[in-house]
Amino acid sequence: MYNSKIIGLGKYLPSNVVTNSDLEKIMDTSDVWIQERTGIKERRHIKKGSDDSTSSMGVKASKIALERSGIDAKEIDLILFATLSPDYYFPGSGVLVQDELGIPDCPAMDIRMQCSGFVYALATADQFIKTGMYKNILVIGSEYHSGGLDMTTRGRNISVIFGDGAGAVVITRTKKNDEGILHSQLHSEGKYAKELSLIGPNTGRWVPEIINKNDPNDVSYFPYMNGQFVFKNAVIRFSEVIMKGLEKAKWKPSDIDMLIPHQANLRISQFVQKKFGLSDNQVYNNIQRYGNTTAASIPIALTEAWEEGKINNGSKVILAAFGSGFTWGSITMKW
After folding, report:
1. Which of 45, 115, 285, 286 is catalytic?
2. CA dist., res. 287 & res. 41, Å (int)
3. I need a surface site. Which of 41, 91, 309, 327 has the fewest CB within 10 A?
4. d(CA 4, CA 215)
């Protein structure tokens, strides 16, 4: 039985910075209103005409992660690509990354678990390595939200939150039982699926039907979120799944060197931090700069925390996420 450990990390953010002041010019909102409710000051949006896409951002983050890992792309046995915004309806973005990295015959799988996507993907990679089926796995979280948001006053409650970006990690096997990924917990509660969703075109309502209907009031192709309901569930589930991770690892909250929550809302992270009595040095947040990048948020934050020297050999790290589905999960690891 092997354990799996992260040996390379990378991130990529589009260069186009969109501040709250920029949004004030196109919708009825304000910097104060956005910061009070979300903690966000700015986010990155792919600029029109840019070559960036969900898969290309994933490739750029992956190349950095691969270089830092010391592993050649051709040594990757499996690609797991977490996203809610793939380049195409089908095929998935994972195979596009596989082609761009020049890996001739590597399986690639998309993980469609939205905000919990990276945690689900990392837990999946961990199991493939534990069984011995694969040795080196590339796990990516990448999102291109900006092109599909309602950037008007009508859509402001959601559109001010989300940003674009990608993060990636390379994980490999280790025979040391006291390092790498120690435990993972995954959960879902499908009865709340529509509380945070994008119904849009679907198999019960294909694109031609929407086009023929031509209803200017049809907003089903924009994301929908029951904000207060999602917030209340998030703080409960975040707390539960972090506690489960602590119990399985036999850690106390004071043992945590770094908690990296999915960057959904700074107020949620602050609530969880207070509940567990954690200091600012034990929790990493970057939603202020990037907004919510869903599946990309944890790998971006994890990479930044490592780059800043906040995560080192022996560090006890917890990753936690909650999102659409509802889905939630956590990973406990020793660096």
Report:
1. 115
2. 8
3. 309
4. 50
Q: What is the pTM (predicted TM-score) of this model?
A: 0.94
Residue pointed to by tokens 């390092």: 179
Q: Residue 238 in contact with residue 329, Cβ under 8 Å?
A: no
Indicate the SS3 state at residue 163: coil
Mean pLDDT of the chain: 93
**Domain coordinates in residue numbering, the chain:** 3-174, 180-334
Domain 3-174 has CATH 3.40.47.10: yes
Rounded CA separation 193/188 (Å): 10
Sign of the torsion formed by the C-alpha atoms of 139, 145, 148 and 149: positive
Q: Is 292 a residue of the active site?
A: yes
What are the pLDDT digits (tens) for 192-228? 989 888 887 777 767 666 666 677 777 777 888 888 8
Per the CB < 8 A criterion, the answer to whether 290 and 202 are in contact is: no
As a whole number of angstroms, the distance between CA 324 and CA 225 comes to 9
**Catalytic option among 233, 262, 265, 285:** 262
For residue 210, the model assigns a pLDDT of: 65
3-class DSSP state of 12: strand
d(CA 4, CA 314): 15
Active site residue 115: yes
Looking at residue 285, what DSSP letter applies? -
Q: Domain 180-334 in CATH: superfamily?
A: Thiolase/Chalcone synthase (3.40.47.10)
**CA 169, CA 172: separation in Å to the nearest integer?**
10
